Amino acid sequence: MIGRIRTYLIRYARLQTGTVSYLTLVQEAELGLNLEISHEKSRLNEMLAEISMTEHEEGRPPLSCLVKVQGSKGQGDNFYKLCEKMGMGEWRSLKQDEDFLKNLIRDCREFWRDEANFQKFA
Prior knowledge:
The protein contains seven helices and two strands. The two termini are 15 Å apart. The protein has helices at residues 2-15, 22-28, 38-57, 77-85, 91-96, 98-113, 115-121; strands spanning 20-21, 67-68. Helix content is 65%, strand content 3%. It is mainly α. Strands 1-2 form a two-stranded parallel sheet.
């Protein structure tokens, strides 16, 4: 399932604009999760965190920056806490920085739209 999520998000970074909702991700990546069930939503969050930690460790932008809760303006606290764990700064400061998330999303798109990066790492 992690492979499907990662592949979907890489394709999304290359071909789409904006961000994708949890629900759209679950439906389009055919994950079969029910987000109404808290442990299934938690499992999705864990997989997104695992993917982003691995990407970060490999020197690539965190793919989970592209996923947000439908109807919200940006990311939730857990995303910023994950960024703090990855050494990007204190999570509250990151959340207050309007450019932080925009820059992450831009960097993610630029990285995956580069054909050499896509061929090597996708």
